[in-house]
TrEMBL record, chains A, B:
Claim: Phosphoprotein is one of the keywords in the record: no
Binding-site residues for Zn(2+), renumbered to this chain: 404, 468
Name assigned to this protein: Phosphomethylpyrimidine synthase
Enzyme Commission numbers on file: 4.1.99.17
Organism: Meinhardsimonia xiamenensis
Subunit structure: Homodimer.
Cofactor note: Binds 1 [4Fe-4S] cluster per subunit. The cluster is coordinated with 3 cysteines and an exchangeable S-adenosyl-L-methionine.
Boundaries of every ThiC-associated domain copy: 13-81
Any one GO BP annotation for this protein: thiamine biosynthetic process
């Protein structure tokens, strides 16, 4: 796949949608949302992660990147300084050369970092009682222009979701560590978002090349495509060549937080030989990535040497890439993990840029047989210890979770995480509820994801149909995102989130009234819904039909329901009239006579 | 679509699979199963619903039908007699003529019915202490050639699943009404199966034409295709022309139970005018279908006149086709449902053929807003009353359930059904856990189906991606079946069914050992898994690769896990040697010197 200078990405609004902006009260901010026009009712406002790509008024130029609009806030705080960037080396791009070297992003920015002794994380500000523009921004975003409280209908399992989110509520949640706003000071293109149990359940999409396939253009488009369909964050899990350059193109063009697993790039720098990793190479990689603007790092610092033998009897061993890499290093050197031993120094780096931690679950179960075993929970408890350390350093933290877990063991995962991890947000991969359906693991895992989201998990990492089989392509990315958006929404509904029901009710009203276009446009994937309908009923006139090809005109239950309601109305009218006749003691008395 | 005399259907075994048969002990029976050959282990035996179509030794001729092998059992009982069939009328085929009339099935059989005063249902036999060949057959089937008990690991919520199913256990479950074997005496081609909370969770696939699309050939192939992928029963929900003739082709060629909703055909007979329905027409339709061999009838006898106003405030009214039809009739005539009033006579017909009841949920919720409302549960309680009446008449009964239900309301459905319906098996449609994803409703509903299966639902009626949008085609049927098979299996796992884990563990072992073909072949859809893998790594040599394109050779966590285990082994060997050295007090002592 030839990398050209300016990749093309998918732009344009979703059907019947326009980009609107809601202004802040405390700060000079404009928060984007999506308004879906309906034919039978007022428009519906929904959360919108798709960035400027769906704004017809935005001028998109991938080679320039998105507007670095957050820069003003960052400088206004007065606690950061510009710095000379760490020079990019050939190792950063896996020693790719010539035609194999992806083009460098055309614009170079000088990175920011915290001034000496200053804490520039959202957690530090929150603890200091400061409501940042980012906090107000996410408060407005979460409310989706909702003004009134809905009647609650759900089982929140101890979550505490307010009717309307205020900036102060956001500050409290962040100060308590129950929520994070991943927002590296070097990612000023970001549209901030919040991850926490008391907010909408979020979805992450994974992109990134491997040694076998994909490149810069495809990955930038995958990011734009993923957020178009609703991904709230994107992780760049590239493991092939050009990791540095590809990442720069992605971050400069991403309105959503970007996460990475730095040990991948570190491994590439040592030619793929895990034993040759060193703390110094890893540290250097952290700085390289923090300067580029990575918003959260997955660090498998909870996987300690003594836990490795606990995996000996597992059916699928260690299935986490990062986990297996650090485990191999530990065992070879017979030393404690350098990630664990140097964790405080990692915190010092993260806090200088406000990179959030996603404390990795290197020992997550990769099969039903391994679920909830000793290794998994030993690591989880260590992640709890590390959470405390990180927070002492003002670092924002979320905790990663499984994996493959049968339904009856899912609740225990949430309970253990709440017990040991000081209310840090939980961020799970599924979990998959059975191993027997490769090709359909977006579905085996949507079941577990919806359930664990209901129980309190704050963000769900998607799984695509390609899981276990190969690198996902663009179609797989979309399928994974839509699947996880519906699972996250099912969780919000079950938790009684006051903003969730509006969309289900609007769509069901449209369905019942045969407003086909409205039904499609309110769905998570209007294009697919419309195409499926049109397979058998393609003519425009069919969009006014009071049936579809499932049942045809005589058997449509919704059509018949309307007939029933009309009949009931007619009879009610007759009953009232019959009532009047009986009072007068005659079969029929004309209305005029009544007045006599 | 032109109907030819002999439709072609998909035949041939699934990959690496052969058809095996297990003999009975009490009766002369041979129970088919599927054995999957593996390269690294003994073969795995799994349940097999696909019938003779996957048996290379079977000669398939759709125009002759499957062998009517159960006939010997039926006659041996001595309680049935042959009868002249009710003549087929033009109305039975919706007045189709000429080229539009589907061909009649080429072979005519004389139907059986119960001799005067005899009860020929599995329930009657079970109560009389008789273990029928059908009962032994399903006991063998459920065990999947398992001989030893597995350690239990699950949460059965009061289900009572034995380590190994015995014919006596089957008899008890049927006698108690907790399970049914839908097996019309006029369906001798049937391979009997059992539906009950204490057995494997089953899956139903819906097929059938509509006025808008599809015909006989397509529907026969859909049935064969659906059971190939694992559907345990199939419902023919045809609402277009040729309902009688299409159904005959389906039943004569179906090894699985066939269900119908007789009111559809009755409505066709009155030209689609619900008000013109009569008890007589309905009764005649029941006999027509029972003589053909329909194994279970969905009858919406629990939808009573006084319940209809309860739906007035619903967002989506009445979404059941049958429910809306009978509701329209009731309201127009302002009379109680003839299904309810004539229910005992319906039982008399059913018991003469052993047609099981699927008591319909005409008032199921069709939107999240309507879930668990007054109308829904009023009908459920009536279904409980009708269950008692049906059982007094020796009729087998299962209860249909919702629908659209958010996760936090699913458990209540199971509890209410257990409370009111005398332990009859529950048979739900999903439920869908959110309304916002048309095009993906197989997934929104797989979430609810897996959960309600875990809670005790015995059979899950599938939902395809086309739900709400159009009639499913063959691809949709497959997607729906695989999705529901994984949901049913996730439920079995969570319940701790002793036979469930074997397949997950076998597949995960294959995955961990890079036995790619084994991994694909053990999956629910080997073709799709293989094709997805081969999109990026198509060469035969890649099937020996210790990686796939997700991570490539350097980053495959499973490959690295093997390295880790090898290293641990090596170190253990060194440690043992080091231990010996230390005991001897020297850095190195050659082994020979030790013996000195």
């Amino acid at each position: 796949m030839k990398d050209t200078a300016t990749p093309t990405v998918t732009t344009g609004p979703l059907p019947a949608s326009r980009k609107i902006h809601v202004a802040g009260q405390l700060h000079d901010i404009r928060v984007p949302m999506r308004e879906i026009a309906l034919s039978g009712e007022p428009p519906l406002t929904v959360y919108d992660s798709s960035g400027p790509y769906t704004d017809p008024e935005a001028r998109i130029d991938i080679a320039r990147g998105l507007p670095r609009w957050r820069g003003a806030w960052l400088r206004a705080r007065g606690d950061v300084e510009e710095w000379d960037p760490r020079p990019v080396t050939a190792a950063d791009n896996g020693f790719a050369k010539g035609a194999r070297l992806a083009p460098e992003f055309p614009v170079r920015h000088r990175p920011l970092r915290a001034r000496e002794g200053r804490a520039v994380t959202q957690l530090a500000y929150a603890r200091a009682g400061i409501i940042t523009p980012e906090m107000e921004y996410v408060a407005i975003r979460e409310n989706e222009r909702r003004t009134a409280a809905h009647a609650r209908d759900g089982e929140p399992f101890g979550a505490d979701i307010p009717d309307l989110v205020t900036p102060e509520f956001v500050r409290q949640e962040i100060a308590a560590g129950r929520a994070i706003i991943p927002a590296n000071i070097n990612h000023p293109e970001l549209e901030p978002m919040i991850i926490g149990r008391n907010f909408k359940v979020k979805v992450n999409a994974n992109i990134g090349n491997s040694a076998v396939t994909s490149g810069m253009e495809e990955e930038v488009e995958k990011m734009v495509w993923a957020i178009r369909w609703g991904a709230d964050t994107v992780m760049d899990l590239s493991t092939g060549r050009n990791i540095h350059n590809i990442r720069e193109w992605i971050i400069r063009n991403s309105p959503v937080p970007i996460g990475t697993v730095p040990i991948y790039q570190a491994l590439e720098k040592v030619g793929g030989v895990a034993e040759d990793l060193t703390w110094e190479i890893f540290r250097d990689t952290l700085i390289e990535q923090a300067e580029q603007g990575v918003d959260y790092f997955t660090i498998h610092a909870g996987l300690r040497l003594h836990m490795i033998p606990m995996t000996a009897k597992r059916v699928t061993g260690i299935v986490s890439r990062g986990g297996s890499i650090i485990a191999k290093w530990c065992l070879h050197h017979h030393r404690e993990s350098f990630l664990y031993e140097h964790f405080e120094e990692i915190c010092d780096i993260a806090r200088a840029y406000d990179v959030s931690f996603s404390l990795g679950d290197g020992l997550r179960p990769g099969s039903i047989a391994d679920a909830n075993d000793e290794a998994q929970f030993a690591e989880l408890r260590t992640l709890g210890e590390l959470t405390k350390i990180a927070r002492e350093k003002d670092c924002q933290v979320m905790i990663e979770g499984p994996g493959h877990v049968p339904m009856h063991k899912i609740r225990e995962n949430m309970e253990e995480q709440l017990k040991h991890c000081h209310e840090a947000p939980f961020y799970t991969l599924g979990p998959l509820t059975t191993d027997i359906a490769p090709g359909y693991d977006h579905i085996t895992s949507a079941i577990g994801a919806a359930m664990i989201g209901w129980f309190g998990t704050a963000m769900l990492c998607y799984v695509t149909p390609k899981e276990h089989l190969g690198l996902p392509d663009r179609d797989d990315v979309k399928t994974g995102v839509i699947t996880y958006k519906l699972a996250a929404h099912a969780a919000d509904l079950a938790k009684g989130h006051p903003g969730a029901r509006a969309r289900d009710d609007a769509l069901s009203r449209a369905r019942f009234e045969f407003r086909w276009e409205d039904q499609f446009n309110l769905g998570l994937d209007p294009d697919t819904a419309r195409a499926m309908h049109d397979e058998t009923l393609p003519a425009e006139a069919h969009k006014l039909a009071h049936f579809c090809s499932m049942c045809g005109p005589k058997f449509c239950s919704m059509k018949i329901s309307h007939d029933i309601r009309a009949e009931a109305e007619r009879q009610k009218g007759m009953q009232e009239m019959a009532g009047k006749f009986r009072e007068k003691g005659a079969l029929y008395v004309p209305a005029e006579a009544e007045e006599g």
